[in-house]
Amino acid sequence: MEGIRYPKENTLYKKKEYTQIGQSKPRIDGVSKATGAGKYCGDLKFPNMLYGKMLTSPHAHAKILSIDTSEAEKIPGVIKVITHKDVPDLKYGISPARWDENVLCIDKVRFVGDKVAAVACVDEETCYKALKAIKVEYEVLPAVLDYRTAMNEDMPQIHEEYPRNINTEIHQLFGDVDKALEEAYHVRTDVFEGQRTYQCPIEPHSAISIWKDNKLTVYSSTQSVHYFQYYIAREFGLKMGDVRVIRPLVGGGFGGKLEPTGLEFNGAVLSRLTGRPVKMFYDRAEMFAHNRGRHQGHYEITTGVSKEGKILAAKANFVLDGGAYTSLGIATAYYAGGLLPLTYDFENYQFDLVRMYTNLPACGAQRGHGAPQPKYAFESHLDNVAEDLGIDPIEIRKRNARQANTNTCNGMGIQSCYLSEALDKIEEITDWKAKKEKGLPKGRGIGMATGSFVTGAGYPIYRNDYPSSSCMVRVNEDGTSATLYANAIDIGQGSDTVLCQMTAEAMGYRYENMKIVTGDTETAPLDFGAYSSRQTAYCGWACKRAGEEIKAKILETAGFMMHLPPEDLECEEGIIFSKSRPKVEPITFEEAAKKYFIIKGPLVGTGVYTVPRLGGYHKGAPVATSPSYSFCTQAAEVQVDEETGEIEVLHAWDVHDAGQIINPALMKGQVHGAFGMGFSETVMEEVVFNKDGKIINPDVGGYRIITALDMPNFTNDLIPSNDEPATPWGLKEIGEGSNNPTMGAVRNAIYDATGVNIATLPLSYEKVWRAIKEKKEKEQAAK
Amino acid sequence: MSNFIVDNNGIKRYLVTINVNGIEYTKVVKANTLLVNFLREELDLTGTKKGCELGDCGSCTVLLDGKPVNSCLILAIEADGMKVTTIEGVASTSNLDNIQEKFLEYGAIQCGYCSAGMILSAKALLTENPKPTEEEVRAGISGNLCRCTGYINIIKAIMAASGQEVLN
Amino acid sequence: MYLPDFDYYVPASVAEACQLLAENIDCAKVISGGTDLLPKMKHGLLSPQILVSIKKIPGLRKIEYVQGKGVVIGAASTINDIVFSEVVQQKYPSVSNAAHTMAANQVRHSGTVGGNLVSAVPSADMPPILMALNATATIEGPNGQRQLPVEDVFCGPSKCLLEKSEIITEIIIPDQAMTGSTYFKFALRRAGALAVVGVAAAVQVENDVIKDARVALGAVAPVPMRAKKTEEFLIGKKISDELLEEAGKIAASECKPITDFRASEEYRRDLVRIYTKRALRKAIDHGHI
Fold it and tell me: Does A111 reach chain B within 8 Å, measured CB to CB?
């Protein structure tokens, strides 16, 4: 009964700010993770369980002529081999606008790694032997490997339904761009190119399927139990109520685990056919092949500005490499241009984009979704414009900064916004002015950029009218604990923890007494899951409402027990006291809860949140809308070895307008992680293919993500606020906006250090070396 | 040399005795059984994670006779007669290890998949070098990849566990 | 991933190990640290039916100074044994530091110096510094023992000149007149990354004149290579920045790098120029570091 106090004098009368939120409570799953006791999907075992693996295509584009599984079937320990004949032929995809993927390929394969067959065996080792024994005859077709030329007339067509390999096209126009550009003092166009990157969560994907008595249970390393339930049920013609999806601990997602994969679909079929549980998993190379990482793109940006640097119009013309399938790419495409008008206020905007099919792994949503590469392009471009005009980079951003209670030209409504303050602050804490005035040592440079992101996508991925999030809270019969049932998905970002903090705050209870049941479609109510930085705000609303319902019920019971009207009572940290009569002895939450159960039965509260209608009416308007947006500024100081091109980030800063902070330690961790990923993508990361479309570096030795030695020292700062009306307690997202500015900030620092403009990601040491060398050669020639 | 028997397929099965977290386990393994799979499959010690299986990520780090190694690149048979410490052996039955405490306190855990290996690397580091510099801490965990935290809170936690001042 | 089946032997002596290898000449491989071998087996690049473990053979894992011989490093010494060896730190900190640049801690605790040589990876971190210090490998086989300069161990990527029944038992860094040595590794990440270029230099300096020099390069040829033209150019010359710059240029011209996804040939050459210059300067100014 630790934590319960019976103050003689009521000392709680003066309302404290908050007791459960705004504090670095330890993670609710922390001990299980620190001790190795916590179970991830790959750690689970079931009696009689089989192991499954998929055979994938070695060719980027090929017709399947025949598949012979007979040799594989003879191997002892091989229980079942399946091909497209054994699985539904209904096409699927997370994006309902384009269902274009088969559970197993029927007539042709479209990338190295496309799914061809699957096996279920008694152990992992036998799976690999079985895969080797399956004989597939292919007729190799010419492949489309460069998205920039994928549209050409002479290119092979990857999907019958999509001529010239165009997966999606966007043409949006707001205001009068041509006129504004004509009238502008200065117009500049820059072209940038991004690279393919991969989420690379440390935990590989895995799924365990158990199909028994017409009911399918799937354990999966997923970011959304709901979308998995919906799409798995759809694929097999099952009622959603007969599909149970369970999320054990998830070892990172970053967007890559939002959509069901061949592991779930083929595992289900193998389980149905064998009558046994089947565990399927990707190894690291297979994860890279499955991919769904960040799209690479070609980004042309034109802006027209006034003499003072005010942006009058912007034009974004983008081409994205979508890979072989749609995945989440339609949303990616809309995000790519949709979010650009967020941090800077301009009236005239044109956004054109094509997303191309290629014979490469499909791209999807990676942290920040479609926004980080376009934002890198825009922030780099803006520094170029500032230089043209002789204006300081922070100054030009101040002159264009988004203000509170404004609308973007493309129909997004912004309420709370402290971007200007974040610009002032970053200038101050980086000692920007002094560094700019005095100059930095040779090879040293400082750069900055702004960022912003949706606090939750305004609309679900497939059209439905369910609420965005919902939850239940049940208080234990004796009141000593409360359990939150929610299908918000903790993929490491800490949603289980902050949701329990918020629930406890709303209940007037204690975080330490909270339990959570989550990630199970059969026990907890609907939530769309962890993507678009929505969990804390959306499920937070549900938790707040459920908690408040509990509190109202508790206070009513307490009023009866204390002979006081419930309106006179308050409950904080599990102590119920009179607001008007300090001398009245408080009672505990536990006492009141127990009494409630005795009189009325289970003490339960429910909460639900539905996003209000948002956005404009143009095509694609729903994407990038959100009830609320975070804003931030980031800066990096770099040292470049001018001989070798080696880049070292000496220090990095982040100033965030993230509203009410629920858990400062977790908030900082999100910012560090986002910056780290962004920095890693800026300088090191790239999925590289050979001329046949096969990944050269499908491992974390060759695909370099930063180590502890590469991460710079970091300063977190905040513009504190809690006036965002659209979110519970005025919070804002933190997980994705934090890597929105990173690439631009690092690029601008490298430019400041070297004077070389490298327009393609990653800004590798070699590119820096080459650019410096070319610059020197030019300077020599000019002499 | 370990004793072995030959199964019906002509594959040798070797008898090994490995001390894991203070307990001696005698098991029959194939020569190709990796230590990580031995721990996870034979002993159900699933705290040791598989991340890359090529020695690049450090998720499967265990202490072999006190030294951190990637258990995905060690054969179980090579560990015959040796002492292995996994994450399950770091905390005593009633208390967390100081490093684990600090990982919790400093928000050094997010998804947790790298945490086991990270904590074992930290454990090895502080055992050899009780007062490491920040740079030594970074080097000590540089074989453990983390995709969530940007390492900052992990470095702080290890500095704190060594009793040193942690700057914010 | 999985390892194909194999039999596993733990010989008690070098002679027994060589005999096992000789008896199974086409299907046996030596396993020492396994950090290079096992990934290759998981990738299906090698599928030996027999692995002969030499890690526990008595005497193969020791590092000592032997009068008249030099620093003797047992082939089964781990990379971290070298990093932390008092003998090495005292005589040649440059070797200890070079060892520390390799991979990451876990791999350094398993991987061995003998394995680092016989795996003959062009970008390996131990060969350049050992070559710069004129180290030799002691090789034992069924027909007895022989000595080979470290630089002669390699004959191509992943290929070395050992007979299939031979093993390296020790590496000897002889006593020397060199006054300084160092190894620079240039990689694209600060840990767990292969060298894009590795440059080791050893110099004997007397009165500002280079009396002797050895420069060895990693990752810029099919095998770790000596930059002999560079060495010849340096010997007998008075030290100056211009001299070292010129030496760098010669090294850049005599190396034979390839372009791969980590770096282009052109970039590697220029890195050789830069790091040859830097390595020479460091070895001249700071001794064996």
Answer: no
